[in-house]
Amino acid sequence: MATYRISSILLLLALAGCGAGDQAGQTPAPGTAAQGGTVPARQGAVAFAATFAGNYSQYTIAGNPDGTYTITDIVGGALRHVAPNSRLRFADSAVGLDLDGNAGKIFRLYQATFNRKPDIAGLGYHLETLDNGALLHDVATSFIASKEFSDLYGALNNRAYVTQLYRNVLQREPDEPGVLYHVGYLEGTHPDGIKLSRAQTLLNFSDSPENKDLVLPSIRNGIEYLPWGSSLPAHPVSAYAAQYDGSLRGGDSGNLSIVVNASGALQASGRLTGAAVDVAGSTTLADGGRFEVTLTGTNLSMVVKGSIDLATGVATGGWTNSALGQSGVFNAAKPVVQPSLFPQVQTIVTQRCVPCHSVRPTQPGFNTAPLGITFDTEAQIRSRSASIFGAAVQSQSMPLGNVTGMTQAERDVLAAWFAAGTP
């Protein structure tokens, strides 16, 4: 290890040209990680630069030429600018913009080790340990000791291990000089006498320029994670049961309808205006009201990904059509249910109009309903709503001579009922 530290600068310069990065091996810190590595005692989370009331899916994040980021609310359109390397807190999760800092390092290490994007809870846990002083080398060691790593890699010799790193991390077959180079360091046969652990070799691949370029499109606009000690909103799927109607915009525009039933089954459908295609698809609602569904139509396929915020009753997120290179956002809300004014309306009509307009009038001087118009039932009142509005509100000619004493407040209720669409 001493020889390695003395020669580390020379080694890093050499690794830069051989598909490897610049993480040096370090002495483990005290503490124990969930996957078997060592981490220091927790001292506190990194402060959030900005907090947002809605779910992560309700916002878009875009980088600016000066390194800052602009966060846009899909629903309200409000903009907010934050500094480079910020951490953001949303109602359901968080996002790290430190792409070259701890968030970027742990994301790349997950991707490199397991050939997959990290789960947001695991990412949040290990990001917390790094923020509190843990060493990336220790996290890499814990990953190598995990069952998932064992299942993925198996019992490989050094050459096979390096070959698998090329495939899993760099997504390509290795070149022979590169294999010999890394195997030499693993076996201590390199001319400089330095021997590297498998964890360090993994880190070198993870933080290599080639891997950074591969991963960048996935993290360019931030890295989502679940802060340590928190969880996604814990609501039963039945709480999300509703129909959410709205629109999508971006590379194309159109309408979108999302229906969730009490068991969590989700049906989505819509129409793309530009493509003039109807699309539909189904999936099952995931934890936290999240979903990802593929909608298909004639010669068209698009992925819609987002979440439902129970606090607002709004579904938000983004959509992509990889084949056409199109993308955009969507938002959909529960239809606004107008409070029913009809019970009040029926009471007013029964008291002020039915004495005359009834099959059995009770108002003195009336044996039959004027013009045969009756308001004895709900159906009769609703079918004549426009006439009631015209006579009782606009001209105020009904009741005739106001013999039943309709008040202005009652006429205002009738006006509000008609204006609201007669709910």
UniProtKB/TrEMBL annotation:
Extent of the signal sequence: 1-20
Membrane-spanning parts: none
Annotated ranges, domain DUF4214: 140-214
InterPro entries recorded: DUF4214 (IPR025282)
Domain of life: Bacteria
Pfam family, one: DUF4214
Keywords linked to the UniProt accession: Signal
Protein name: DUF4214 domain-containing protein
